[in-house]
Amino acid sequence: MVNSSKPTNRLINEKSPYLLQHAYNPVNWYPWGEEAFTLSKRENKPIFLSIGYSTCHWCHVMERESFEDEAVAALLNRWFISIKVDREERPDVDHMYMAFCQALTGSGGWPLTIIMTPEKKPFFAGTYFPKTEHHGYHGLMELLEQVGTLWRTSENKLRESADQIVAAVQSGLALPKKASTPIDNSQNTSDSNKAWEKDVIDKAYAALEQNFDPRYGGFGRAPKFPSPHTLTFLLRYAENHPQSNALAMVRKTLNGMARGGMYDHIGFGFARYSTDEKWLIPHFEKMLYDNALLALAYLESFQVTHSPEHAKVAQDIFTYVLRDMTSPEGGFYSAEDADAEDQEGKFHVWTPQEVEAVLDMETAQKYCSVYDISAKGNFEGKSIPNLLQGNIHKLDQESSLAEVDVIKSLESARQALFSAREKRIHPHKDDKILTSWNGLMIAALAKGAQVLGNKTYLEAGEKAADFILTHLRRVDGRLLARYREGDSAILGYLDDYSFFIWGLLELYFASGKPLFLQTALLLQEEQDRLFFDTQRGGYFLTGSDGEKLLFRPKESYDGAIPSGNSITTLNLLRFGQLTGSKYWKEKAEQQLLDFRTVLEAHPSGYTAFLQALQFALHPTQELILAGSLDSEELSMMRNLFFSEFRPYASVLYQEGSLGELVPWIENYPLASDQTAAYLCQNFTCQQPVYEVDQFARLLEQF
């Protein structure tokens, strides 16, 4: 907690929780803006730029060690102009300087530390620094002294170095020249035209299979990240290659994560990643985007496997988000911290004595046995609840109960422990509302409504969409990126458009309400106008009306979050499928061609983008439901349709108002008193059916 009696710096006037965390530092911080840059030029001082986010553990560590320290502050205030940036508010600034950091050091992370000229050109980059040299880490004090001296004695050399760094990074950023011939995959496309696409998909699978951990699931060694879009890519690969190991890899990974300590078995939701290979020890922060994407992965796996455990994980994620991460107005908060009371994980760990203080002795012993809570502990002397140790199987044999029944028998115990945990000091919550991450959670909730038939999820998704359209969209239609405490600000980025459009499309599939499709199309048109690169194809991260940086970032790599270009490609393909418009189809095909080179270079790094490629290669599938949206038959048919995995299918509702957007829908007239269902492939439809049981039989052949 900050001491409000301490003097403040300029960050006190910001809305970002991350910047406000540093508002009481003795460092004379500036927010990113012209005031800082003008002062840097006038006083000819280099800029010390620090980028992080409010739930970043090592950002907190560096603040406590250095930015709250008077000696460090004295150096920064004397020789530098210091700027703080919230990477979640300014992904463009973060993306740009992370590219420099990776080019200079071969790695990156947060806090991101950049030292640059007054013209914003970097000549030094790194991440976390302790106050003084420690265990081989360079100390921040020594670094500041050295750079300060160099700037005073060899400024020209530093400026030359900065110019060279900027030129080198800029030269490696451009996509190949825009391809000129779209590939039409929907009709009369030769196998040779499709060869590169199939080859890229197969190479991605081969790389993932080679990197798969068969013992614990996941990919690579510790630390392990959830990478849910990799899992959803593999689900699609398994659909097309049932003899592969793709589905087994997905199940092993999803089961491992759900059993491990990365999953909050008491309050639900997933932590950011696992620091070990077993999924046991998490980095405890919880991010909205991780939970949205993981919910989607578990829902799709449930459609494939019909595993009730996977459905329950998705439901529990939604329970967590709707309970703890939803504003009264309906928007979703961004994250929860790893730390509580300056200790990582303190809120989440237990001792047997703490469990016994809440439950009766017999239940406490059973709970501790099942969830690996012991006197020895598994994390710094305490225990992270998990189901990895196999104790539950021993209990199965002793009680003759199935594993799922053992867990159910401890549900009241879990609730009691949750109530007790609520009395602890909670981790910090980053309560800003980001359009992009809200778009992901809207998509997940809408998918949850489709797959699980839960109207509560649909209502929550619709309320969040209404929040964005009300509070994060200007009168002229321009999306904004961030809302907090009544303040909407920052021009929306590509991810804000692409992710929110995705959410709107999923809401349309779940509800049939034409407003969602209409709004999605309008936003896509605006995205094309503001973000499309007419010279080299693809979409920039920032709009043409945004701040001019050293270069205009463009991202296609699917990291912790899918890139805006990846999701846009799939959105464009869906628009082409839904509307039948050649315009959208050709834009999608061109997008695939424009990124062909990067896809071929490292296929497994673009698993969200490859899902668009999988979609493009598959014959189109459509369901048209003609009838009242309030019809019970329509609802039952929709539920049947979404009960199975149909990743290449779209649903259109002929309720009488879509003729202008979807002219071909007029070929499927409304009946006055019944719902008609048309199943189509490549826009060729079978005879309509009007009864639910007839529809079920028809689906078996689809």
TrEMBL record:
Protein name (Swiss-Prot/TrEMBL): Thioredoxin domain-containing protein
SUPFAM superfamilies reported for this sequence: Six-hairpin glycosidases (SSF48208), Thioredoxin-like (SSF52833)
Superkingdom, taxonomy of origin: Bacteria
InterPro entries reported in the protein's UniProt record: 6-hairpin_glycosidase_sf, 6hp_glycosidase-like_sf, Ssp411, Ssp411-like_TRX, Thioredoxin-like_sf
Regions that span the bilayer: none
Domain Spermatogenesis-associated protein 20-like TRX: start-end pairs: 8-169
GO biological process per UniProt: carbohydrate metabolic process
Gene3D superfamilies: 1.50.10.10, Glutaredoxin
Originating organism: Desulfosporosinus orientis (strain ATCC 19365 / DSM 765 / NCIMB 8382 / VKM B-1628 / Singapore I)
